[in-house]
Write a structure and sequence with these properties.
single chain, alpha/beta, Rossmann fold, 5-stranded parallel sheet, 5 strands, globular
Length: 175
Amino acid sequence: MTFIFDASPLNHFARAGHLHTLELVTKVGGRRVVTTAVLGELQRGVQADRALLDVQDSDWLEEVHVNELGELGTFAEYARYLGSGDRHVGEASTLAWAEVHGATAIIDDRPGTLHGRRRGVTVHGSLWLITNAYKASLLTERAVTQLVDALVDTEAWFPCNGDTFFTWARENGLL
């Protein structure tokens, strides 16, 4: 399995000081990639938070380009649906690359997630990764609670916090 990351999960894990945790919980996937467009989005945020530099320095993330004909056509379709503003270029490139290469996209934004799934892409978010890491005994209950709270503290929008995570995960069939 290959994971490809949108900017939001990388942004929040880096700002929370938990990029190493993201590396740990995605090791089972094999390849872990990020598009050049997503790296560009994160680079633009470095002035606001220098922790984002850690993403570019991560040797476990492989940079990929969306520049092959099939990738570009698929990217154009996603960009048309999501919009072409700076924020959506990375998301469109992530979904296009995932679709063409059969990767699992890790995206925390709802519109992109829903559209990608409609097109047959496997799309999950940060909370799915955290749940799977807990089920695989990579993270303890206490570590999960602290991690979710740390991500929420970086303004990640989740339908739960650390205290309510396990209830939310059970109610949504993840546990």
